Amino acid sequence: MPRIASVRPRDTASPSPTPVVLPVSPSRWKGANIRSRSASGTPGPLNYLLQPFGVHHVAWLSVHALGSVILVMIWQWTPFMTLIILAGLQGQPADTLEAAKVDGAGAFATFRELTFPHLRPYIELGILLGSIYLVNVFDAVRLMTNGGPGTSTTNLPFYLFQQVNNAFDIGGAAATGVVTVILTIIVATFALRMFARVFQFEEAGV
């Protein structure tokens, strides 16, 4: 797995990225473990934590398959998105915040008028990068639900896999692959433009 360079936090109230990055590594084998335990009805860690609230022995990947995959994707990519937002926060000029404080602006007004507009390109960049991955996600669907129940969690890459390995429809799989590549190129084009916008944003010192 490629190493992720951590961002050195400032002396201000910036959280250390080290404990945030750790959940990325075990996400794939954890998804397989959740599938093997939850789908079989064996009480896993989530069911154990929810027992005090009256939830007992829920087969999450059978009853809430799509929601389970979405939650795992959020858990897997939250550290990366957090690092993007942290980089944006560290790139915000401190003198602007000090000037707002001198003018009597409160915390909410400072965030609404200064911090959030500054973070907007970084948030949009994170959304686009996440979209590129979601168009091509395969491992979580294959390990956790195998596209089921039925076709409730089947996406384009997994449908392509089924066309080749189950139906032996090479032509249909090739057409699906072309559609997937086109969608990836469209999203990647917007992502590259957003990269250029972020760099111009930083060079301008806004």
Protein architecture, described:
- The chain has 206 residues and is mainly α.
- The protein has a single domain, classed as Orthogonal Bundle (MetI-like fold).
- 69% of the residues lie in helices and 0% in strands.
- It is built from 10 helices and no strands.
- The protein has helices at 18-21, 27-38, 45-50, 60-63, 65-90, 94-102, 107-136, 139-144, 156-165, 170-204.
- Helix 5 (65-90) crosses helix 7.
- The radius of gyration is 21 Å and the shape is flat.
- Mean pLDDT is 76; it is low at 1-25.
Helix/strand layout:
Layout: H1 18-21, H2 27-38, H3 45-50, H4 60-63, H5 65-90, H6 94-102, H7 107-136, H8 139-144, H9 156-165, H10 170-204
Helix pairs in contact: 5-7, 7-10, 9-10
Which features does this protein show?
206 residues; mainly alpha; 10 helices
**CATH architecture annotation name:** Orthogonal Bundle
Distinct helical segment count: 10
CATH topology, what is it called?
Answer: MetI-like fold
Q: Per DSSP, what share of the residues sits in E-state strands of 2 or more residues?
A: under 5%
**Which superfamily, in CATH terms, is the homologous superfamily?**
MetI-like
Domains (count) = 1
Overall pLDDT score: 76
Question: What structural class should be given to the helix and strand makeup?
Answer: mainly alpha
Largest sheet: none
Helical coverage, percent range: 55-70%
**Rg measurement, Å:** 21 Å
CATH class equals Mainly Alpha
Report the span from N to C terminus: 35 Å
What order do the SSEs take from the amino end to the carboxyl end, as H and E?
HHHHHHHHHH
Judging from the principal axes of the Cα atoms, what is the shape?
Answer: flat
Strands, count = 0
Enumerate the spans where pLDDT stays under 50 for 5 or more consecutive residues: 1-25
